[in-house]
Amino acid sequence: MGREIEKMSKKRGHQVKLIIDKENFEELLDIKERDIDVAIEFTNPASAYENILQCFNSNISVVSGTTGWTEKLNELKELSILGKKGFLYASNFCPGVNILFSMNKILSKIMNDFPEYSVGIEEIHHTKKLDSPSGTAITLAQDIIHNIDRLNNWKENELSANETLGIQTIRKGDIPGIHSVRYDSSFDTLQLSHSAKSREGFALGAVLAAEFMQNKKGFFEMNDVLKLNTLFNK
User: Fold this and answer.
1) Residue 152: pLDDT over 90
2) Would you say residue 219 has pLDDT above 60?
3) Is residue 125 among the annotated active site residues?
4) Active-site choice (126, 128, 129, 172)
5) 153-199 pLDDT, tens digit each
6) Measuring CA to CA, which residue among 5, 11, 9, 126 is closest to residue 64?
7) Each residue of 87-114: b (16+ CB within 10 Å) or e?
8) Considering Cα of 94, then 36, then 47, then 146, what sign does the dihedral take?
9) Dihedrals φ, ψ of 64, to 5°?
10) Taking CA 52 as the corner, what is the angle to CA 46 and CA 55, rounded to the nearest 5 degrees?
11) Which of 125, 146, 155, 179 is catalytic?
């Protein structure tokens, strides 16, 4: 993702002033001296929290797409709002996936009144993906559970049953990401699905988010970048 974001940033006319990896991690401590507008953070669950805090301490806005650490996300949300730090988090930056999120919310609200349908999620990713289920699948599941009264939790690699929403996870090949939400009844099937063709869409979304975050303080999401809240509230 880092390489894709670098290419997309330059394609859109931006200057990449610093690239930090495990080999030069100590340079993050001096990030304040680099005259950087926005930091894009795609690392791993173990380091994301500290990386974001370091950027906050340097008064640099952060766009983060690292998944698997969201138990600390609310803390950083509150810190960004109260401390007037710029922070945008998304479990998936692809514009199409964020449209899927909005459609999933609307459909799940409708399906709350149709208990004859069972619902399940399937996600497929490349074999090098670290977290399972994906952050995208968890976001889909959380929104469904929030809107469908008969569900109260999710479980990985179990079929949906009673109050539990099942998330089927598959790891194979070099698949960038496929996510499907499926409603099944005895008489028909209703499905929402998104299939990424490459990582370019994720990189574009991350750079769009970074452009959006310049000179902004507080917490934001991709709905703000893509103006989906305004669209679906009409």
Assistant:
1) yes
2) yes
3) yes
4) 129
5) 999 998 888 899 999 999 999 998 999 999 999 999 999 999 998 88
6) 5
7) bbbbbbbbbebbbbbbebbebbeebeee
8) negative
9) -120, 135
10) 140
11) 125
pLDDT band per the 50, 70, 90 thresholds, residue 231: low
14 is catalytic: no
Q: Measure Cα distances from 185 to 111, 116, 120, 182, 226 in Å.
A: 12, 6, 12, 10, 33
pTM: 0.81
The C-alpha atoms of residue 40 and residue 12 are separated, in whole angstroms, by 15
Q: pLDDT digits over 21-60, tens only?
A: 878 878 787 777 778 889 999 888 888 899 999 999 999 9
Show the tokens assigned to 132: 């399972």
Q: What is the rounded average pLDDT of the residues 106-134?
A: 93
User: For the packed helices 73-82 and 48-57, what is the interaxial angle rounded to 10 degrees?
Assistant: 10
Residue of 225, 211, 215 lying closest to 92 (CA atoms): 225
Beta strands in 129-220 (DSSP E): 153-156, 164-171, 178-184, 189-195, 218-220
- Specify whether the CB–CB gap between 89 and 131 falls below 8 A: no
Tokens of 108: 């799940």
Structural domains in the chain, sorted by start: 2-93+199-232 (3.40.50.720), 95-195 (3.30.360.10)
pLDDT at 232: 55
* CA separation, residue 105 to residues 2, 81, 137 (Å): 30, 25, 13
Pick the closest to residue 45 from 18, 3, 73, 20 (CA basis): 73
Amino acid at 61: S
